Amino acid sequence: MKRKFSTVLVGGTFDEFHRGHRALIKKAYESGERVLLGLSSDQLTRELRKNHRIATYEERLEELRKFLKSEGVLDRVKIVPLDTPYGITLSTTIADALVVSEETEPVGKEINKKRKASGIAPLKLVVIRMVPAEDCVPISSTRIRHGEIDREGHLTRHKEHL
């Protein structure tokens, strides 16, 4: 199957690896022959200042590798640590596209502005819809960590009605 792009970028923290993460990464593989996957470093995750624990880089890397192996695409990926929110997106010239979710599309646009200002060609943005949980609110690692939903988006406790 001929894919649209030679090399695509995708990145994230990928904590509590869930159905939305899988959709994002699958879109990267559908779009590009090769995938450069940026995984937030432990330092970067501390800077994110989430109000919950985030698994270590090694734990998240292991889970990512298991998924990529199960999909049969481990040979088409290079996983790189992200030490800044932009990772290698502002310097690499080998990538054609950046896969983002609706939520992170503004960051993709910001990356392209910065690339243009540096004289680097902008990346084509491949945008996927956020994957909803069964309550129609997007699945997120934060919601999973707070015990609202599981990794598939199923409600784990029902909100009290006022």
Annotated CATH topology: Rossmann fold
- Helix share, percent: 25-40%
In the sheet with the most strands, the strands line up as: 3-2-1-4-5
H/I helix tally: 5
CATH class group: Alpha Beta
* Record field, number of beta strands: 5
Question: Structural class, from helix and strand content?
Answer: alpha/beta
User: What is the terminal-to-terminal distance?
Assistant: 53 Å
Account of the protein in words:
The chain is α/β, with parallel strands linked by helices and 162 residues long. The protein has a single domain, classed as HUPs (Rossmann fold, 3-Layer(aba) Sandwich). Helices cover 32% and strands 20% of the residues. Strands 3-2-1-4-5 form a five-stranded parallel beta sheet, sandwiched between helices. The mean pLDDT is 93.
Sum this structure up briefly.
By secondary structure, the chain is α/β, with parallel strands linked by helices.
What descriptors fit this protein?
alpha/beta, 162 residues, single chain, globular, Rossmann fold, five-stranded parallel β-sheet, 5 helices
What is the strand and helix layout of this fold?
Elements: E1 5-12, H1 19-31, E2 32-40, H2 42-48, H3 57-70, E3 77-82, E4 97-101, H4 105-117, E5 124-128, H5 141-145
Parallel strand pairs: 1-2, 1-4, 2-3, 4-5
